[in-house]
Design a protein that fits this description.
The protein has 389 residues and is an alpha+beta fold. It has three domains: 216 residues, DNA primase, PRIM domain (Alpha-Beta Complex), CATH 3.90.920; 111 residues, no CATH class; 49 residues, Ribosomal Protein L9, domain 1 (3-Layer(aba) Sandwich). Helices cover 37% and strands 20% of the residues. Helix 1 packs antiparallel against helix 2 and helix 7 crosses helix 11. The longest helix has 22 residues. The two termini are 12 Å apart.
Amino acid sequence: MNEKTRNFLVNRFQAYYSQAEIHLPPEHISREWGFISFSDSSETFMKRHIAFGSEGEITDYLKGMGPSHSYYSVAYYEYPSAPKMKEKNWQKADLIFDIDSDHLPGKMNSYAEMLENGKKETFKLMEFLLDDFGFAEKDVHIVFSGGRGYHCHITDPSVLHLESPERREIVDYVSAKGIDIERILSTREVSGDAGRESAQMMVFPSGTEGGWRGRINRYFVSFMKDIVAMDKAEEVLMGFKGVGEKTARKIIEVFENEAQVEVLKGGNIDVLSGLNKKVINTLIEEGIKKMSAVVDEPVTADVKRLIRLPGSLHGGSGLKVMSLDINELEKFEPLRDAVVFGDRLVMSKVIKPFAVQMKGKDIEVEQGEQELPEYVAVHLMCRGVAEYG
């Protein structure tokens, strides 16, 4: 960006910080802090190894510098301002999850659609954290990153001293890495009555079991019931590898019968005896893909990482990094609720055509000089597709 644009953005960010409510992390004086400033060059530098002694020092820094990006360490240190990591004396660290929306599977046609997918992925992660791991809602903090996705901070004392390998195991669990379906859907030999040979019987988990076993039963039943309720259920089922017309009809027959569905929930898969194990494996694999959460493993495993400061602004979008309660996430619309700048017109030079949805409006901007609402102008300048003046 040019000097005029840099000065404009620094001024607007300083104005924001002069009245902003910043959500400081627990024990903020034990954290390392890092900041990136707006620059008129193509190179980006982070100023880090900073420590603050009080809340006032942090807010004064933000007001005075108007940084492009503001971070603090997930770690708590004895000497957070020490210039070398080994000198800081690591004590503990929050457990952090990062959902990066542009890393999610599937095609996304717009920034708004990408952020919506990130929110859905965050809900999946919440189910694991609250139900499977049993964290209290007060210890789970959701943060919209201001850019491409969501962060989740866990401050429960039971996780603060976990090392990187243990944190990777948690990521493996929520992302279903290494699940062995053969151990979930196994077979065992059942003795026959007098005069009858023994038989092989499939063993399926009960819906009341904990962990992935119970999850697979509950999702399998729910997933199949949803398909069977569709108008073209038979056609949809035949889209799965190994499911022919006869098998599809058998599945529909079972899942339209509530008594048989209850038997399935209890872990008895005999009611699907018409299906071979390979077909059931295929359906379970589909369910696992839908249930697992896609999180950035290096972020969770890094016990010294810097994370965005809630309440600060994201210099790549101009949007607010927002701390959210779990019950606020459903109605949260980042391109509406994280917009902090107003409608006053700002003369801008648009470098290339750009489209974005903000404040409930579909905004399409053509190349050239024009007046734009400030919230649009700041967003485009931060994205690098417009200059000031």
